Amino acid sequence: MAQDTTVSKLNFEYWLDKAIEWGQATTLESQRDVCLHLPQLQEFLHQLYETLKHMGSVVAIQQFPLLGQLLGRLCWNPFVIGYDESQKTLMWCLCCLYSSEPQNPLELKANSWIRSLLCHLLSSSKWESNEAETSPFISTLGYTSADYYCHLVKNMVFSLVTDLKENQFSGLNIQGSVSASLVNAVSIFCVPLITLPDLTPLLETLLLYHGGSSKEILSPEFLEAVNEAFLKKKISLPESAVFSLWLRHLPSLEKATLHLLDQLVSIQMNSLEEVACVIKDSLLPQAASHPAIFRIVNEIFKNALLEADGSSEVLTIIQVFTQLFLQVYQNENKQHKFPLKAYFPYHHQPLVRGLLRRPFELPVTYWSQHLKHISDMLKALVEDTNISSPTELFEIWFLVACFGEWLDIAAEQLLKAAVEPDALLWLLAFYYCPQNENQQRTQTVVEVQAVYNHLMMLFSWTDLSLKDLEAAVHRITGIKQCCNQHLITHLLVNFLLFSSGGHMVAQECIYHITETTDRSKEVHSLLIRIAYRFKCNGEENQRTVKLLNELLQKLTLKI
């Protein structure tokens, strides 16, 4: 063993002398000599890496004090790094010298030097300063300078990707091939080069790489940088790589979700098609097919809604997200589907299944029956069991609120279909007044039913005036019980859209409501939800669609 070490040191000194002699290979004589020695040099570098990878950086420097000088000189020799796998092997050697937890200023300085060398090896732009020295060699090969270094970087990335993939699937001991510390170092060195297009295959491979370690082996700086570049659309990654990023790094998933909310809240919601397009583009609904991601995103949405004091815009975003998630979930291959309980582990499963049924899956004539079933289950949970805390009640309410499409259909069915109103009014009363005690909620239903009965009496009238609707409008503009106002607003908007004479007074009525209250955004959110459902399901006649568009245009200008 001692003899092997001596030979290694003799070899080391020989190649250090050669590196000093060659410099950056600017003369014809040095270029010829480099070319003659490249195969033996590559073999030496491979042996050096095999030696270094079993040492720590401190031991490596103790055994080879001039190692940095040798590697540094070779990294700047264009003939060396252009030959076969020498560039890759130099990178692995540098990674072995990197201190994952530097203990002193010297190790910090060494880390900085190593990072600069890695950037130099991977980034084609770093070569431009040496173009005068390298261009004769490149021209001889038939390349332009830009083409040559572009191919060099691509080959380097391809080689690293191949090594990582082979190591991932070989089943060999990690220490025997590519160690976790080396993968961590490579991820760190990629940080300043994240947006380099040729680096994308390496980013993808690193994000999908897990090795044999139970701990995260990629640096948090790398994961944060990739997420930031993805959110700003500076890089494009396959869905699988993005999902892996969010699964392995919770801060990135949180940032992506908050970024989406900020993006949507800051834009004017003219249609939910636009909202749905932005949400789909974020890849979050697709990623949420994994239960862990779904539960975290759902929790972030829940907190955002609380912070926004129940904002109708935020709630609408959550409802559209839930619909898009359901589309992805229902399109999943049955063999790869997770059970519903994985997404909603703490909720009453029959209620979850009822809410998850999409309206288009059922005949229209069965909608009111399905809504009554949902209402009965919900009422049994809220009133017939002991809800021990406001938190538990909020969790039930939030589950129902996420599936707002059924709530909008409930308000519509009350006016358009021959239904027993009690169950559907109770469902809407719970949605708008979840904090009420049972007795209060019963009183709310009684009060709202009086308005509902009045609207039903007017439903078939073809000649309506605002005065005919005075009682309902006064309930919205005059009473202080907020939840009643929300519920009656919901019913009145549906009445104006679907009744025989509602079209005649719709604009005047909604103008009056929005002028005398602060409900412009609430009514706007309600109208764009209805318009979105019509467009998705191909429902309703042209007159109703035209009225919807006119109302939305005026409200959009107002808010």
Automatic annotation (TrEMBL):
Gene Ontology terms: biological process: cellular response to oxidative stress; interstrand cross-link repair; nucleotide-excision repair
Matching InterPro entries: FANCC
Pfam families assigned to the protein according to its UniProt record, in alphabetical order: Fanconi_C (PF02106)
GO CC annotations on file: Fanconi anaemia nuclear complex
Domain of life of the native organism: Eukaryota
Name of protein: FANCC protein
